[in-house]
Structures are given as C-alpha cells and as structure tokens.
Design goal:
The chain has helices at about 25-35, 50, 60-75, 90-100, 105-110, 115-120, 130-140, 155-175, 220-230, 245-260, 265-270, 275-300, 305-335, and strands at about 10-15, 40-45, 85, 150, 180-185. The protein is mainly alpha-helical. The protein folds into 2 domains: about 5-190 and about 305-335, HUPs (Rossmann fold), CATH 3.40.50; about 215-300, Orthogonal Bundle (Tyrosyl-Transfer RNA Synthetase). It has a 3-stranded parallel β-sheet with strand order 1-2-3. Strands 4-5 form a two-stranded parallel sheet. Helix 1 (about 25-35) links the parallel strand 1 and strand 2. The longest helix has 30 residues, at about 305-335. The structure holds adenosine monophosphate (AMP) and tryptophan.
Length: about 325
C-alpha cells in the first residue's frame, strides 16, 4: 500500500522493547496488526523512547529493540507491505511530543491509571518522562494522522487522551488538522491476565517468569508454565457465564479461545464438565502448536541482526517521509517560523 487514499485508513501501533515479548502482546496486539495489513496502510513501531521512561540498560535496549522487531515480523508483520521502524529514528516524535506537552493538561495526565500503577508509591522518584508518556503516545499516532490504532484493553485510556489532545489542538488553532483516532480493540485476546494472578494483566514487568508465556519459550517451558498456572477446583462450565468470578479459569479459557479464534462460549461448550487438569493439556497443545512457528522464526531472524537493522533503517526513512509534510503543517499552524 503506498497511498492513504487506496485504503480504509492509516493504522499506527507500537510496543515497548522493555523486556520479553509475551502471549499478551501477541494475542492483544500483534495478531490483530497482521490482520489489518491488507486493508490499511500500517505503521508499526518499536517504541524505544517510551521504554526509557524507566531505566533500561543501553546494551539490553539494543538487543530488546531487535527482539521486538523480530517478534513483529515472526508474528506476520510484513516489512515491505507495512512500515516497521524504531521510534527514535524519526525525530518528529519528540518534536510533536513537545508541542503536545503544551496542549495537554496536568489534570488530564493526573487521571492516567497506568502512571499510577507504574509509579506506585514512588511517585516523587519517577521520571518526568513516565508522567508525560501519554503525550508522546499521542504524538506517535498524530504525527502520521493515523485514523485507527489497534491495542489491548489497557491502552484505551491513553487513546481517549489522544483524542482529547487532537480535539483541543484543532479547537485552539481553529483548524481540523488532526483526525479523532479510533481504537481497534479486538476479540478475546484484548486482556490476557497473569497465569499466577487472574486480577493482574500479563506483563513484561512482572517479576515472576511463571506469570507469563514469553514468545521465545520452548514447548517444555510452555507446558510447565501452563501446568503451574492457577485455577480452581470446579470443572469447565457449559457457557462463559459460568466463568464469572472465576478469574483464573476465565483467563485460561480466554487464552484458548483467542489462540483458536473461537468465542469463550464455544470453548466451554466443547470442554463442558471436564476438569482443568484435562483442559490444561489441550491448552498446552494449542499454545505450543501456535507459538512454535513464531518462536522459531524469531530465533532465525535474531541470528541476523544486520537484516533487522536494515529493516528498521528503511522503515524509519519511509516513516519520516510520511511525517515530514504533516510536521511542517503542524509547525506553521502553531506559528513557528
Ligand atoms: P506493551 O508490552 O505494554 O508495550 O504493550 C504492547 C501492546 O500489547 C499494546 O497494544 C498492549 O495493549 C498489548 N498488551 C500488553 N499486555 C497485554 C495483555 N496482558 N493482554 C492483552 N494485550 C496486551
Ligand atoms: N503505550 C503503549 C503500550 O505500552 C505502546 C505505544 C506507544 C503505542 N505509542 C503507541 C501503542 C502508539 C499504540 C499507538 O502498550
């Protein structure tokens, strides 16, 4: 896809290279990114500037940036059809983020639940970057006037803020410059929870390796993690309604449903009355079968860092070419000479 006119719109999305890519990233994000490629002009970004809002070891940041790019491609992002790059390659993200720092309001940022979760009790010691993180995210999206953003459920609030920023900018400067971006939050994978605690989302930053399935876990590790996953003593119910107030059971059924592109009701109908020991075996088989090709392809790509770097470099050039006229229009609207 070369021009916006030929497609249903422009998609932008990203993930942070701040740790291992996991099943939540795959089911909540990458899997949907891949599906959108044929109908939208897609820009997929490894958001390294977001990652450094908390400390990252420089050497690890480099290898994790390559790992993230490998994960996108292994999941099915085609770097020729879509644009794949890392955020710090295109200076416009930082430039527009500064303008948005001056549009966005303290009161808006104070409501962001992700900052509260990440900063925890140590708010005073958090970086200022962590606080203004959502303004940079709005800049990522609006630098390309993206119309659609596929994300997991946890990013909904940040996308509402992106719309608020776009609307305030348009009103302040009396010009419909930015679109009001639509979130795309798809299916059963939108919120995958920790395997150890059904009330917490599966996350890169959870200290327990047993809380998540990483995209580079081998079949034995996946089997072990699913075997140890928390459940309850009840068998599977006849419908998904029977999973209410059973968060761990609901999560395992949700993972199976998302991997198989089925509804949770269909999974319950198939396994009704069976215990979780049985169901976990079926889930292990499905997870191992679906993830093995991705894990293998990631490993293959990571053996050739030169190739990954060349994809990111050419993606950066293509992204910068789209951003340049938009940034010029924004700067002249603001009154920069
Ligand atoms: P992050 O790993 O926080 O950079 O997230 C990258 C993408 O993966 C975003 O679209 C998130 O919404 C999505 N994501 C992260 N964790 C999960 C999860 N546990 N379940 C579903 N989607 C997730
Ligand atoms: N904040 C997102 C996350 O942690 C990552 C992200 C940064 C993003 N910029 C974006 C996602 C723009 C979608 C669009 O998951």
């Amino acid at each position: 896809m070369t021009t916006q006119q030929q497609t249903a719109g422009r998609v932008f999305s990203g993930a942070q290279p701040s740790g291992n890519m996991h099943l939540g990233n795959y089911l909540g994000a990458f899997k949907n990114w891949v599906r959108l490629q044929d109908n939208y002009e897609c820009i997929y970004c490894v958001v390294d500037m977001h990652a450094i809002t908390v400390w990252q070891d420089p050497a690890e940041l480099q290898s994790q940036t390559r790992e993230a790019a490998a994960a996108y491609m292994a999941a099915g992002v085609n770097p020729e059809q879509s644009i794949l790059f890392n955020q710090s390659k295109v200076a416009g993200h930082a430039e527009l983020a500064w303008i948005f720092n001056c549009v966005s309001r303290l009161g808006w940022l104070n409501r962001m639940t992700q900052f509260k979760d990440k900063a925890g009790k140590n708010k005073e010691k958090s970086s200022v970057g962590l606080y203004v993180y959502p303004n940079l995210m709005a800049a990522d999206i609006l630098l390309y006037k993206a119309t659609h953003v596929p994300v997991g459920d946890d990013q909904k609030q940040h996308l509402e803020l992106t719309r608020d920023i776009a609307q305030k900018f348009n009103t302040d400067f009396g010009k419909e410059l930015f679109p009001l971006t639509e979130p795309i939050i798809m299916g059963e994978g939108a919120r995958i929870m920790s395997l150890r605690d059904g009330s917490k989302k599966m996350s890169k930053s959870d200290p327990s390796e047993f809380s998540r399935i990483n995209l580079n876990d081998d079949a034995d590790t996946i089997a072990q993690k699913i075997r140890k996953a928390r459940t309850d003593a009840e068998p599977l119910p006849a419908t998904a309604e029977g999973l209410d107030s059973r968060p761990e059971a609901a999560n395992l059924v949700g993972i199976y449903a998302a991997l198989m592109d089925q509804s949770r009701d269909a999974v319950c109908a198939e396994f009704e009355g069976q215990g979780f020991a049985e169901f976990k075996k079926a889930l292990t088989d499905v997870a191992a079968a679906k993830l093995a090709p991705i894990t293998e392809e990631m490993a293959r790509l990571q053996k050739d860092p030169g190739y990954i770097d060349s994809v990111l470099a050419s993606g950066g050039e293509r992204a910068a070419a789209i951003a340049a006229p938009i940034l010029a229009e924004i700067k002249s609207t603001v009154g920069f000479l």
